[in-house]
Amino acid sequence: LASTTEASNTSKEIEIFPGATGLRGTPPIKLSERYETREGPDGFLVYDTENHTVARIANQTQAGLTLGQGQKAAEALSWASSHDESIGQLK
User: Fold this and answer.
1) 89 falls in which pLDDT band (50, 70, 90)?
2) Which residues contact 89 (CB under 8 A, 6 or more apart)?
């Protein structure tokens, strides 16, 4: 019974949106990384989207950076976060 209902729902989806079958099994969309480089009032900063603060490495606030410095810091913090490592960021 469940497979009949599922097949019926799939048929309805295809009628409404023919490309629906191509969307099945795709991973969920990730809208943002935890650490983002953003333009601030005095240069660039690394923003922690989870804690809603400017990120820190050790006791150094990641603000007033060049674009390149901000991107490297965000990349390092993102890597550390995804590998459950700490590089001085308060958790």
Assistant:
1) very low
2) 48, 55, 56, 57, 77, 80, 81
Rounded Cα distance between 66 and 44, Å, is 6
Which residue in this structure is represented by tokens 């958790």?
91
Q: Is the pLDDT of residue 30 over 80?
A: no
Question: Hunting for tokens 């240069």 — which residue is that?
Answer: 43
SS3 category, 22: helix
State the DSSP H helix or E strand holding residue 32, giving kind and residue range, or none if neither: none
- The string of pLDDT tens digits covering residues 51-62 is 999 999 989 999
Report long-range pairs for 30-38 (Cβ below 8 Å, ≥24 apart).
Answer: 33/74, 33/78, 34/77, 34/78, 34/81, 35/73, 35/74, 35/77, 35/78, 35/81, 36/74, 37/67, 37/70, 37/71, 37/73, 37/74, 38/70
Q: What percent of the chain has pLDDT over 90?
A: 46
